[in-house]
Amino acid sequence: xxxxxxxxxxxxxxxxxxxxxxxxxxxxxxxxxxxxxxxxxxxxxxxxxxxxxxxxxxxxxxxxxxxxxxxxxxxxxxxxxxxxxxxxxxxxxxxxxxxxxxxxxxxxxxxxxxxxxxxxxxxxxxxxxxxxxxxxxxxxxxxxxxxxxxxxxxxxxxxxxxxxxxxxxxxxxxxxxxxxxxxxxxxxxxxxxxxxxxxxxxxxxxxxxxxxxxxxxxxxxxxxxxxxxxxxxxxxxxxxxxxxxxxxxxxxxxxxxxxxxxxxxxxxxxxxxxxxxxxxxxxxxxxxxxxxxxxxxxxxxxxxxxxxxxxxxxxxxxxxxxxxxxxxxxxxxxxxxxxxxxxxxxxxxxxxxxxxxxxxxxxxxxxxxxxxxxxxxxxxxxxxxxxxxxxxxxxxxxxxxxxxxxxxxxxxxxxxxxxxxxxxxxxxxxxxxxxxxxxxxxxxxxxxxxxxxxxxxxxxxxxxxxxxxxxxxxxxxxxxxxxxxxxxxxxxxxxxxxxxxxxxxxxxxxxxxxxxxxxxxxxxxxxxxxxxxxxxxxxxxxxxxxxxxxxxxxxxxxxxxxxxxxxxxxxxxxxxxxxxxxxxxxxxxxxxxxxxxxxxxxxxxxxxxxx
Length: 611
Hints:
Shape: globular
Helix content: 40-55%
Oligomer: single chain
Structural class: alpha/beta
Distance between the termini: 59 Å
């Protein structure tokens, strides 16, 4: 049963149609994840449904009496309010159950200083407080914009379990693919102002989307094949202007006028690293504390030439501090860092750097480099911007007109334009859409240098790293394997160090990389399939030689049946017989057209194989 109806919503920002005549409905029990490229209108749609923004056209209709809880991507709050008062909405001393639940939830989200003023909190802490506040209201409809940003792995697990058992309706935008998989039962994908619906979780969405794109691609191949055939017929010239020929010409014109399916634009990245020498980065007995709190001490590690290491730990444990020390932005209290002469560090900070909003997008990138050498040759700043989905028109607009996600993508491009050979990525998944994350993952596969990552995104870590640096009670311990391997090891053995790298030298045993082996087997199988010679079977060859005549005969039969039906409009028994015959002929023609497409595609492949 539909409890929310979104009817013909449109929203225009400047000259960009973000949402175009969009309609959808929400049923009881729906837990919906909204995905799409940054700037496609995901957050805009959430704000419109939440009543925080008005659409240019259309309306939202709720069932009577429904309550809505809304958490925006960057929550605003009264700086002088205490944490407990903020999340309880001023009811902390008058409603004991609410206060008690608020305290328990704040502890789970590591905000246990209840009397701290909101103005003293970091952006991530404010986001967690806002999350706590909206969850406490227990609304019928919960609307969350990027709820997992600024949550460490433990908090993400807590929120995942909470939302899985939540009884109301959930609508959220998130890039966390494991989170989407575990929490949602519906996926909405926004693409070029339109929306596509999948009644499944993220894994099911990937499968269904691939099927949808395969169907569209097959339909387009069929249309193009029919067009080629019809064009040959038109070019030969019609012998007479019969009803059949007029219908065929009309079909040709209709097919020609149809739009081809448009592939979604994707970020493109070429390898941009500079050469890395033999000596990389060596850390010896590194320690750092702030006041009485020791973040880490005695950390030693030697980065190997193609290291892929992810650092994890609770919020505030010192992950970002370590990244800043590695990048040379701050100093350690003790210990030593030695960097090779060829080391060139690209540092992608957790928070997007401050940008001059009056500056044009292209000038922001040109300030770093006008050209960059990639694996494909020398590429200009403008061309790199196009690869990152900034059209020529967008490149000459002020940064003020870009979305938060687009700025994050722009900042990432600036870091890559420095052509680093050591990439330090601090929470790179924050505010990047899934499509960009997938391309970034592929880029990191080919990156000829060291990759150092801080991330709470479990999927991203599993996809990109082959060892984990875990912050454990003031020490950093290195575990072989990706994040799932780390979780399994710590689950089985508690906090014991199983299969860890020697802390002093960074030397490790070779890892059996099953992912690469499996990929190698897959590529071998594909190459073997491609090497197999294509040819017609004896039956297919005969069918290919006669199918054009068979199609023409069926078209003639249909034309004759139409004439007979026109002449016996009062003889209903005869008319019914003719209609059955026509249906049978149309079914045969449809089957023959499908076979014609298949045989002609095969003939083209065979011909190409000969060349």
